[in-house]
Amino acid sequence: MSKDYYQILGVARGATSDDIKKAFHKLAHKYHPDKKGGDESKFKEVNEAYQVLSDARKRQAYDNYGQAGGDGFSAPGGPAGWDFGGFDTAGQAFQFDLGDLFGEFFGGSPRGGRHRPRRGRDISVDIQIPFAEAAFGSERTLLITKIGQCDHCAGSGAEPGSNKRQCATCNGRGQIRETRRSLLGSFSATRECEVCNGSGEVPERRCAACGGHGVLRKNEEIKVTIPPGITDGEMIRLVGRGEAAPKGVAGDLYVKVHVERHQVFRREDDNLVMDLNVKLSDAILGAEHELKTLDGQVTVKVPAGISSGEILRVKGRGVPTGPGRRGDLHINIKIKTPEKLSKKAQKIVEDLRAEGL
Predict the structure, then answer these.
(1) Residue 188's CATH number
(2) Dist CA 274 CA 330 (whole Å)
(3) Spatial separation of the C-alpha atoms in residues 272 and 214, rounded to whole Å
(4) What is the SS3 assignment for 47?
(5) Hey, which of 173, 232, 256, 280 has its CA 20 to 30 A from 248?
(6) Cα–Cα distance between 251 and 244 in angstroms, integer?
């Protein structure tokens, strides 16, 4: 293998397609010939690596055989290695998908067309809940400061009752076309008009609350339903409850749940586990114990002759797993051996030992 494409892009062999794309964008910006300090040879090398590693079939062949194969292409040194000697400023011999790269350079696409609606930022918050709430579920109300839709204008950006007129910046198209020249030739791309946010219209009177943006930073109460059986570190996704975007769609809100430790119970899958200290005499003769569970009292019968480490199971006293279904409560028996004995107790134990017990 004459070239290590993973090393060229600076990613590990197990890198995801997103990791590869991010690395390519970063290096393409760094080495682009039109940029000050750019490096044309490095730029071509980075693109060569990206063309292989971004294609699942070529990447598999490259990983297995050291060449990408198929479509008349192989890694350098193979029977159909790339020849960049014919590279020219018209870009005739240097073909790759410019869509993502021009999204970075122009803020749009070289193919033109309407842009997808803007999307607000995803946001995340952390909450801490008691152990019992994690087991049985609950509802929380969160107060979050974020960019949200303006209530005064309902997100339109116009003062209520105000009419709209055509945007003079983009002449109502919602987009602005730009042309740039580079070593790859002349490229045209469109980007969203920043004045009308791609709508092609602007209000005659801007909203007094948000200044015509349709969004503003504000406090918002959001109700979060915590499902029964949630585990520590689990995320709850609330679609559309993240930050708003002008003339666009809101991002998502991610709530990371942290579950407090319980003094008595711990969780194993859908079962609750606890330790029960049992006196030596109760372990020998048997006894009944009243236990306080997460949802009420329960009487547990400790059978005679039980050993330390044995597990007693109380069915249906664990974590809910669905309508009418729950895990179990597992009780780990720990026999407590007395540290000191009275003379009478010591005589009884000696008698027991004499009996072979």
Answers:
(1) 2.10.230.10
(2) 6
(3) 50
(4) helix
(5) 256
(6) 6
